[in-house]
User: Fold this.
Amino acid sequence: MNSIVAYILMLLIISVIAGFAFNFTAAQKRITLYKGVDVKSERVYHSQSGYHGYLTAWLIGISGFLIFLGGLFLRPDTGGLIFNTVWIGVLILTAASITYLCNQRIRPEFRARTHVERLVIGALIVLSAIAVFTTLGIILSLLFESLRFFDKVPFTEFLFGTQWSPQMALRADQAGQSGSFGAVPIFAGTFLIMLIAMAIAGPIGLMIAVYLSEYASKRVRAYVKPAIEILAGIPTVVYGFFALLTVGPTIRNLAEGFGFSVPTQSAISAGVVMGVMIIPLISSLSDDVINSVPQNLRDGSYALGATKSETMKKVIFAGALPGIIGAFLLAISRAIGETMIVVMAAGRAANLTGNPFEAVTTVTVQIVALLTGDQEFDSPKTLAAFALGLVLFVITLILNVIALTIVRKYRERYD
Amino acid sequence: MSDKKAEPYIKFRCKDVRVHYGQNEALHGIDIEIPDNGVTAFIGPSGCGKSTFLRVFNRMNDTIEGARVSGSILMDGEDIYDKNLDPVLLRARVGMVFQKPNPFPKSIYDNVAYGPKIHGLTTSKAEMDHLVEKSLKRAGLWAEVKDRLKSPGTGLSGGQQQRLVIARAIAVSPEVILMDEPASALDPIATAKLEALIDELKERYCIVIVTHSMAQAARISDKTAFFHMGDLVEFGPTEMIFTNPGNSRTQDYITGRTG
Assistant:
């Protein structure tokens, strides 16, 4: 009997609207009446009629929602006619009494507007608290699951071990499968791919930003900027199979031409494609930063006989550098957290290598690998995913905090 | 160069100068001769084209998309809009100070050294130190900043920033200094200092100043040009413009009836 939930919700909405309409018209009547009869008096209604209505509506909305939630929580499995009748009854009764009480309050000195504003602020606080608590909840669950993992695998082994093979014995009597959880190779792989991506996206993105903000005419800019931003709208899974099916084989064939053998899945192909994906992020953030350097600094430099490139290098970069660093850091944390491209193109072998032409694996790839398929949720193998997630989260959090601090400091300088 | 007051040397000769922003003509054919070694003031109501005209002299209008300049502007007899003339070199000879002080986000020293560095005016650190000191002294700022040359130029007060910007312009040894309402963001004390500085500088440079304050134009300039709606209405010795203007529009403006 789920239709009762829909009925209750509908009833709630109707009573909110009815409460508003009832007290709005009541207030309107009383205020007009008052204006007509008692003109001599200096006392005027504090709040306009709408606020009396809104106050009623808010109060019905909030208490009705609580009644709705409470009913959902208490509802017996079988449903039950009596329960539903009581539920609906309580809701209607509450709405009616709130309407009555608010109606009694429609008096000149009653500050309905102040109350409504307080309720609105309260609602905004609750909504933002939801976001904060969700984040907090995710962090805590990461933390506790990680702690369970570190009960089974020592913290130092996880952080400094160089062997990653998370296979556990399926049966207790199986031999030779103890599993090792040294996360160094996968973090090394993550950073290797990030470095390749940044080596591509950093210079290209920055040069695009310089061109668009300083050299391109308005017309060119109007076409090129959206075109670049299309790159940002391509789903990462598309980048992923582009890396796997196009870039990887191309690099392998090229390398074979030179007599090397490179696997199709390699750090370089994932890194290159990830770099392309990040270009718009860097270019549009840097473009914003360069544009926010005040025009009068440019004018000052040109007026001294500086060329465009001198102005760019010596004045604008000096002003925009913190913002550009911020943009790079945001791009790095995006690269580290990126999953789909590396899952498809980087491989799964946890090689500890600095050679971009080998297959490596990343933190995100390993999390996917650990959690897909049939798993027990208390084996170190699954719990390791939480530990990896936690470390990844801490790294990107630190990067984001640094980036945002830099960007904010930079903003203050011109405002 | 100049013949000591008797027959002033003419720095700029302008004939039929027109400036277009896109379809819109902002200046409708200006003829003017700007003398060397002295202060020429441009006055007029907002939007009359005086700032636009000022930016003609160092080709700053080139940096605005859609701006076109026609007519002839001769500086020492040489057409500064000639195709073979590099605006970058012109701007080294014609410095500019803007309405809002715009020191670079660099140290005081580097602000002044910026121009000389890009034009390769000095060959050694000692020479540069000397040039920076000389420029700051000439701009009347040295005594206030000599102990903190390495601190950021943006940390100075508005009046100090404006003098820093003048020092920065002087450092590349220009012949002309254009000033676009240089005192409009300054308090009266800083303005007085700036005007005293302009009075000293005019011995050495040709100064063209755009100002909204008629009192300022009367105090500091030798010649005054009155602009209105993109036309040069009247141009002559400052005394004459302010005491006995020949045109009723000038009269109305300086007595406060229009503008």
Observations:
- The CA atoms of residues 50 and 109 of chain B lie 32 Å apart.
- The mean pLDDT of chain B is 89.
